[in-house]
Amino acid sequence: MKMCNKQAKSRWILVGGVTAGLMVLALQGATAQAALITAYSGVGFTTAGDWNPLIAGHQFTVTGTGITVQSLGVFDFGADGLVNSHEVTLFSITAINAGGGSPVALGSVTVPAGTGATLDSSMRFQSLATPIFLVAGNYSVIAYGFTYHTSGDTGGDGGTSNPTLGLPVAGNNVTNITFSAYEFTTAGSPHYPNGGWGGNNLADASFQFNVGNTAPEPASLGLLAIGGLLMLPRARRR
Questions:
Q1: Are 191 and 231 part of one and the same domain?
Q2: 186 lies in which domain range?
């Protein structure tokens, strides 16, 4: 009878361990979705005109506890779908200027043509294969493949009357750097723009993120499951 009780107890411990792991994963996913923030908005921007061909984006500073980037996006003028697909790449940078010093590509997506990608704030977003946690530092997001709006997709122009149009909301560990990186080229990712100017009034690339580190840790969940499995034969030997 005691042996049966021990076996039953060990099974409950195993089930409890696996269940706890699944609960942690579910809670992480729910938190990430609830706290998702769009960094750069394209609302209020008009067509940038005959900028053909063009790659362009923003430089920004991450502060405090950092952020977890979940998806990258590109400006969709008119919010009526993209004519072409566009690469969007996240970089770490070592200088706030044209060229970004020594930029390092951290992750990239291809936002598909059409209306299939998630639309938010006049930006079309595609999720990263794996969320990326950014510690405090300087970074950049660049979109590729802009062309004249009658034959492709154009970047956005906010004019000079509202210099804060579309910028990240304060208090979320992301601060815009007053420099717009761009280059007239057909180059794709991970080429980084060699030009730019000290202004904020362009809409081109964006990203969605959570405050802090919300990236799942599969290694921790794996160790939890292995530990639970090892407990069962040990209980049986008793």
A1: no
A2: 37-211
| CATH code at position 98 | 2.60.120.820
The number of beta carbons lying within 10 Å of the beta carbon of residue 237 is 5
21-57 CB burial, b ≥16 within 10 A, e <16: beeeeeebeeebeeebbbbbbbeebebbeebeebbbb
Q: Taking the model in full, what pTM does it have?
A: 0.78
Per-residue pLDDT of 100-114, as tens digits, reads 999 999 999 999 999
